[in-house]
Amino acid sequence: MGAPFDLSDNNVVVIIGTGAGGGVLANELAQKGVSVVALEAGGRYLPEDYTQDEWASFGQLAWTDARTTSGDWRVAKDFSGLPAWIVKAVGGTTVHWAGASLRLQEHEFKAKTTYGNVAGANLLDWPITLAEMEPYYDLAEKKLGVTRTNGIPGLPPCNNYKVFEAGAKKIGYTKVHTGRMAINSQEYDNRNSCQQSGFCFQGCKWGAKWSSAYTDVPRGEATGNMEVRENCHVAKIEHDKAGKVTAVVYFDKDGKSQRQKARVVCVAGNSFESPRLLLNSSSSLFPDGLANSSGMVGKNYMRHMTGSVYAVFDKPVKMWRGTTMAGIITDESRHDPARGFVGGYEMETLSLGLPFMAAFLDPGAWGREFTTALDGYENMAGMWLVGEDMPQETNRVTLNTDVKDKWGLPVANVNFSDHPNDLAMRKHAYKQGQAVYDAVGATRTFPTPPYPSTHNLGTNRMSENPRDGVVNKWGKTHDIDNLYISDGSQFTTGGSENPTLTIVSLAIRQAEHLAAELSKGNL
Amino acid sequence: MSKKKSYLSMNRRELLTHSLALGASFAIGAGFVASPNAAWAVEAKFLKAPTLAKLIQLARDIYPHDKVSDEFYVLAVKGYDAEDKVKTIEAGIADLDKRAGGDYLKLGWEEQRVAVLRQMEDTAFFQSIRGGLVTGLYNQKAVWPVFGYEGESYSKGGYINRGFNDINWL
Ligand SMILES: Cc1cc2nc3c(=O)[nH]c(=O)nc-3n(C[C@H](O)[C@H](O)[C@H](O)COP(=O)(O)OP(=O)(O)OC[C@H]3O[C@@H](n4cnc5c(N)ncnc54)[C@H](O)[C@@H]3O)c2cc1C
Ligand code: SF4
Q1: pTM for the structure as a whole
Q2: Contact A328, A481 (CB under 8 A)
Q3: By the 8 A CB rule, do A228 and A110 touch?
Q4: What integer is the mean pLDDT of B74-97?
Q5: B-proximal residues of A, 327-356, CB under 8 Å
């Protein structure tokens, strides 16, 4: 039977969330003839709905339901109710994302083996290797149309990139280019080429940037095997006496509670909501939450070592013109403990519009030191620093039972403090970023603190041993045979690369696994 | 901005006769604040006029941009002139005056005023005014050109043919 599916249809795979993980998984399964119901908390917005206005777009797309924060990260002080900057909409955060699409490196899948024992860090090797991932990275790069793969040319250099490249070369960096981007440098897969409009973070109005919102989701729906129910917030996953999951309970667009039966449940709500849902689904059989016999649900939260460097010059740059993030230096993404830390980091061009620059350049700052920086906005160039941060058990998502969302459910509290390795890496990255701009005549540079997290990883991590994590190498929970995790919360460690290409590759791989298991009758 | 026609059309001489106080920055009258040259005027409906004037000065002292005219600061704070906000704002400004030795506007140098603000930057009042200004001031589309920012580009076809790569000094 095809979509739409009945609430009592217990043959469907229910997927929670339609972002990088969920949206891709849903389509991949639908293409293979598997019946899918995807439940998405947010509404549906397409390129014609996106708005090139930073705050208006934030209001339209961002997840602003209550969350709380703790720990010594500055976000807890400056943006206490907004630990992450992510999307609540069909397509999830792939509507916001900038499109940087990088593979993790071989050694990054073996963080524990490569870095050894790092005090205070809860490092682990992934239960999969780069070699196992390569075929799926190939498929993901084709799906997303990543530049500099499959013969697709790189994007043309914009003003912000030109400053970045000139500085990089002056200080001796050799691996600098306009990035591997899921942004069309030429028409591809029925999507336009990039018009350099500079609002990649607000949803691409040309569809030049890949997003599951207007690719995988509608294509999956077109098969007749997939139904997306938007504005449906999943509150709980139910199970039977044997401990197999049987249904999900959600609040529909009218606020009515509904129960969808399920053969398999795949959770892809991003790294706060996925563990929150498992924890909110506790029962007498699973008093600590679903799939939590290891106690690892919600733990080992990673957000990448991040930070930015902006610089002002004596002449105009106009960085807002052109792609938000098409530029990368990869020289520092190697593992080289001689620098005083393990793991590496990427340097990537980044521009913000004036309204966001005012909010994020130095949150809380005021007076002339701050305003003279903004006075130089037209002459400003910028980069983002993104590196591997250490998993720590104490960095974790827990339920805050004192604060409830509009459904009466305890919200996620996100506790985070930097590891000394993260701090050492950030310091190094600031220094190098400032050197890049100083080399081309910056008159002032700004080592800018991390924004609310855009990369959220690790809170249901993959592990070989069920004791160390929540899911196995297929994303299947160690405890429950028909419960899967399908988003960035699976990451065992973060690597230095932006995570989405890996999330998409894992989703393609998981779809293949699930379809095979279903047809063998194993699920 | 709610510019009151009668005040707006005042010339400088009329303004002087209506003003109770005329400082370097503001002409303050019964129920209005204006610029001394009558370029702009704003009605104080709920707040005392001097309170509104101090709020405007406070906004500029928090985020001083010499090329940004008063109108933008007025617009950024005028939402505080509302019935449900009067109490907090009057109390906050009274505290500001007290810390300033009586009258915030009498401190002639920005440096003197900033010294006062440094003492109160952790108060809820200061933080809520500052926080509100981040969007109240910088999210005004009309102020963007002062900073060179061009805003949306979709309606003009992006920057692909409008200078996305026009930097010429590297
Ligand atoms: C500004 C910005 C720029 C970025 N740039 C890049 C980049 O250049 N490269 C890169 O690799 N990554 C980038 N990222 C990160 C990238 O967007 C995320 O890594 C990726 O989208 C995460 O995928 P996900 O499937 O884990 O979650 P998401 O894509 O966030 O999807 C989760 C979905 O689940 C839904 N959901 C959550 N809870 C529930 C519930 N209870 N019931 C129903 N639905 C629910 C949410 O509404 C959401 O739609 C960026 C992110 C941001 C914010
Ligand atoms: S710069 Fe390119 S990818 Fe970014 S929003 Fe504009 S057209 Fe889309």
Answers
A1: 0.96
A2: no
A3: no
A4: 97
A5: 353-355
Residues of A in contact with B148 (CB under 8 A): 316, 318, 377-378
One-letter amino acid at A377 equals: Y
Q: Tell me what ipTM this predicted complex has.
A: 0.93
Calculate mean pLDDT across residues A403-407. 97
Which ranges of A97-180 does DSSP label H, i.e. alpha helix?
111-115, 130-144, 159-170
Cβ burial of A434 (10 Å; 0-12, 13-18, 19+) is: buried
Q: For residue B36, what pLDDT is reported?
A: 85
Sign of CA dihedral B42, B48, B53, B54: negative
Provide the strand spans (E) within B12-170.
Answer: 19-22, 27-29, 32-34, 41-43
CB-facing half-sphere around the CA of A173: CA atoms within 13 A: 24
The whole-angstrom distance between A329's CA and the closest CA on chain B is: 18
Give yes or no for residue A62 CB within 6 A of ligand 1.
no
Q: What 8-state DSSP symbol labels residue A188?
A: B
Q: Residue A380 to residues A100, A156, A318, A351, A386: CA-CA distances in angstroms? A: 22, 20, 7, 9, 20
Name the nearest CA neighbour of A102 among A345, A321, A391: A345
pLDDT band at B23 (very low <50, low <70, confident <90, very high): low
Decide: A194 in ligand 2 pocket, CB within 6 A: yes
Distance, in angstroms, between A167 CA and closest chain B CA?
Answer: 9
Name which of A497, A415, A499 is nearest A457 in CA terms.
A499
Instruction: Please check the confidence at residue B37 and state whether its pLDDT lies above 90.
Output: no
Q: What share of chain B is helix, strand, coil (3-state, %, to 5)?
A: 55, 10, 40
A183 lines ligand 2 (CB under 6 A): yes
Q: Looking at beta carbons, which residues of chain B come within 8 Å of A163?
A: 167, 170
Q: Indicate whether A433 pLDDT > 90.
A: yes
Q: Is the pLDDT of residue B6 over 90?
A: no
Rounded distance between C-alpha atoms, residue A438 and residue A383, angstroms: 13
CA–centroid distance for A502 within its chain: 10
Inter-chain CB proximity A367 and B164 less than 8 Å: no
A328-329 vs A396-404, strand pairing mode: unpaired
> In the structure encoding, which two tokens stand for residue B166, read together?
């026009």
pLDDT, position B49: 95
**CB contacts, 8 Å: B164 with chain A:** 156, 158-159, 196, 198, 321-322
Counting atoms of ligand 2 from 1, which one is nearest the CA of A323? 1
Range from A319-323, B2-6, B59-63, B135-139 carrying the lowest mean pLDDT: B2-6
Q: Of A321, A370, A374, which to mutate for an interface test with B (greatest number of B Cβ within 10 Å)?
A: A321
Q: How high is the mean pLDDT of chain A?
A: 97
pLDDT the model gives residue B2: 44
CB contact under 8 A, A377 and B147: yes
Residue of A nearest to B163 (CA): A321
Distance CA A249, CA A119 (A): 41
Structure tokens at A499: 């995570």
Q: How far apart are CA B87 and CA B125, in angstroms?
A: 11
Contact check, Cβ <8 Å, A158/B154: no
Amino acid at B35: S
Top residue of A186, A196, A351, A370 to mutate, by most chain B CBs within 10 Å, is A196
Find out whether the peptide bond into A218 is cis, omega within 30 degrees of 0.
no
Q: In Å, how far are A137, A138, A196 from A212, measured between CA atoms?
A: 17, 18, 21
